[in-house]
TrEMBL record:
Residues 436-553 form the Glucose-methanol-choline oxidoreductase C-terminal domain. It comes from Paenibacillus pini JCM 16418. Keywords: FAD, Flavoprotein, Oxidoreductase. This is Gluconate 2-dehydrogenase. Belongs to the GMC oxidoreductase family.
Amino acid sequence: MATKLPKVDVVVVGVGWGGGIIASELTKAGLSVVGLERGKERKTEDYYMVHDELRYALRYEMFQDLSKETITFRGNEKIRALPMRSYGSFLIGDGLGGAGVHWNGQTFRFLPYDFEIKTKTIERYGKKKIPEGMTIQDWGITYDELEPYFLKFEKMAGISGEVNPLGGKRSEKYPTPPMKVTPVMKMFSDACKNLKYHPYIMPSANLSEPYTNPDGIDRAACQYCGYCERFGCEYGAKADPVVTVIPVAMKTGKFEIRTHSNVRRVLYKGNKATGVLYTDITTGEEYEQPADIVVLTSYVFNNSRLLLMSKIGRPYDPSTGHGVIGKNYAYQVEAAAGVGFFENKEFNLYAGAGALAMTMDDFNGDNFDHKDLKFIHGGSITFGQSGNRPIQNNTVPPNTPSWGKDFKAASVKYFNRNISVWAEGSCMPYRHHFLDLDPTYKDAYGDPLMRITFDFEERDREMVKFLGAKCGEVLKEMGADQVVAYTEQGPYEITHYQSTHNTGGVIMGSSPETSAVNSYLQMWDMENLFVVGASAFSHNSGYNPTGTLGALAYRAAEGIVKYSKSGGSLV
C-alpha cells in the first residue's frame, strides 16, 4: 500500500533542463513544486579535477544503469526486439540535471521551416515531394511565436554566439560574445567563404566570458579543457540545470527535490491527473504524491512510457496510422562526414570545448533547392574542436593495417595531422517508426520496457550521399592532401554511438487527432497534465535539440502558470 503524501501545487517528473526550467518559473510565480528525480543528487563540486576519460566517457559513470532499465530495439515490425544491454547509439542520462549535465553545449534554434515543415514543403514543391509513409506535420506554432522563448533560454544559459546568417530573425543578439576562433576553425571558415557558403561560430553554452544571468546566477568563463561531452563541468562554465535554473527554484523555498524517486504511474480520475505513484529506489517503498498539476519532464523514452503504462492518451497504431502516443519517433542522421589527412600541417585538437566550432547552414532545412533531390530538409555542416581525448582518438587513413609496424607508424604520423568535418543530419518521421511497450521484457520493477521500431530510409541514404560530398568538398578547399568522404548510409546500428538526439512520441500540433499536446505542451486529453521535452518534436532537425527544447519549456511554464489561475485549455 502506497503512502499518500500531502498535496502540492505541481509535481515535476525528472529534473533536467525541462524540469529545472519548469520548477524555476513556477516557484518564482508562487507555486509549490516537488521534483522527483530517479537518479542521485549532483553538484559542481563532484567534478573538481575529475578529467577521467575512462570513468566517464568509456565506463558511463553518469548514465542510466541498463541492468535495471533499458530499451528494446528492432529495425521493423517483422523481427523481435531485443534489449540494449550495453551503451552504443545513444546515452541515457541519470541523476539531477539529466543530460543537461553531460551535454556538449551546442545550442541552436530550429529553423522557421521546421515549425511549418509540411505546409512550406507543399507550397514550394507540391504534395508529391513528401514520400508515401512520411508523417511530417506542422508543429502548431511558428518560429516567430517561439522566438521570445528562445531568447529567454539563451539569456538564462548565457549562450555565447554569432548570428546565423541563414537562420530565423532574432530580436536581440546573443547575451555573450562567441567563443574563440582556433586556427582550424579559421581554415574551415575561409574554405566555406571561398565556396560562397555562410559559416558562423556555433552558439555555445560554454561561456566565452564571465556572465551573470537575469536570475542573478554568476558563472565563470570556459577554460577550454576539452572535457564537456559525458562530463560535468568543474568550473560551472557549461550551462547545466544544476548551476542555472535549479538554484533559482531552490532559493524561493517552494521547490523540494526528491532524488532516488522512480515515478511509475501518473494517477488520474476521469480526465484530470491527481498526482503520481513513485518508488523510493533506496528502500523499495511506494509513495503517492498528489498534485493539482502534473508535468512530465523526463527523457523522450520515459515520457512516452509513463503515458502508455498509465493508459493516458491514445496509443499509436502503425497499421492504421491512428493514435498519438508513441507516434513520430525520430533520431538523428549522423553518418555524413569527411576526414582530411595532411602531410605537412599539424594541429592541436586536444584543447577545446564542447561547442567550440564553426558551422554553416547552406544545406540545412530548406535553405537550398530540393527540386531535383530525393530528400527534403538536410543538415548543418561543422568543424568542431570539442577536445580530442587520448583513449578514444587514433585516426589513420583507409587501408592502414589494424596492427603492427605500419599501423604504429601511421598512428604517430597522423596523430596531429587529421581533421574531421561532419554533417548533423535531420531525421524525418515515418508511419512505421514508433515507440510502444515491449510485450516481453520488463525492468527491475516488473514494468514493460520501451520498445523502439526504427531504421534509416532511402531519404536518409540520399541525404547522406549529398551531405557527405559537401563535407569532402570543404576539406579539399581546406587543403587536405587526402580526403575520405563518407557518403553511404547503412541500416541503423544501435551498437555504436551516433548521438543522444532522440525525439518524438508525445508530439505537439494543432489538433488532438494528429498530436498529443498543444503548443503549450498541455495534453489534449487531460488539461492539467503537461509533457515537456524533445518528445514534443514531430521530426528532428539538422541541429542539436536542446535550444528548441529549452524554448518550448519556457513557453510551457508560462502556460502552466496561466492554467493554475484560470484552468481550461490554453489554446
